Amino acid sequence: MKPFNLLQALPENIQNSLLSNPPWEHWGCCIVCQKLLTYNEYEVFGKMRKLRIHCDCELEHDKKMKVIEERRTKTIEIQKVFNRMNLVPDSLKDAGFKNFKERTGTEKSFELAKEFYRNFENVEMGYLFYGGTGAGKSHLCRAIQRSLDADGYPTLFLDWVKLSDLARASISDKNINIHAIVRAAIEVDLLVLDDIGAGHLTDYEYKTVAFPIINGRQGKKTLYTSNLDPERLEQWFSADKDGKPLDEDGRCIDRIIGSCKFVRNKATSMRRERARAQMIE
Q: pTM, whole model, 2 decimals?
C-alpha cells in the first residue's frame, strides 16, 4: 500500500497555514517583563517553520502553578485524614502573629518566628522552642503554621498529648489509622510537633509515633516546642516512667539537633500573669 501523506490530505488553506512563516520578527511581548518574543526555526514536513519562543516568565509561572497544584492535592489528602480529629488545642485555634502578646523574654522567639515564616522557602533548619509553660512558644508556632497554611502550603500542627492519646486509643479502636497520621506528619511541608516531653513516653508511642515522625522529618522543615531543656528532653526519650530503656542511643534528640536550632523562650507564664492581674485583694 502506498504511504498516506497526511499533509496532502488537508485542505490547501490549512496546508498554507501550517507551512507558511510569519513575515515579522517578533510575535508579541511578555506581559510580565515586556521582553519582545521571537521565533525559533524547525523543520516541519520537510520545510523550515517558525515556532514561537515563550518567555522564561511564562515557563516559571507554569512551574509555580504545578507546585501550587501539587500542594493543593497534598493538602486535600491530609484533610481527609484529619477532618474528624481535633489535634490542635482550642486555645490555639485562632493563634496568629497579630494577636501574639509580645513581652519581656519573648523578643527573640517572636523575631525568629516571623523571619522563619517570611523566608520559609529559603530556610534550611527548623526550631525547637523551649522554656516554661505559658511563655508563648506554642502560640508562635501555631501562628507560623496557620500563616503558611493560608499561603497554600501543606502543614500540620500536632499537639503531642492529643497525638499520644490517639496512638494509645488506636490499639483498640481500628477506626483510628495512626499510620496514616504518621505518614501525613512526615510528608507535609511544615510540621509543628507541640509540647514534646509532656507526660511519660511509652514503648508503643516511641516506636509507633515519636521515632517514625522525628526520623522521617530529617531534612524537612519542622518546629518543636517543649517545656524541657535539651538535656531533660533527651532523658525523656531515653526511658519510660518505669525506667525501661526506649532510646538509649539518643537517636531522637540527635535527629532534632541535626535539623533544628534550639531557642530558649525566657518569658514567664502569660496565664499566671493574667491570673495575678485578676486577683482581688
A: 0.73
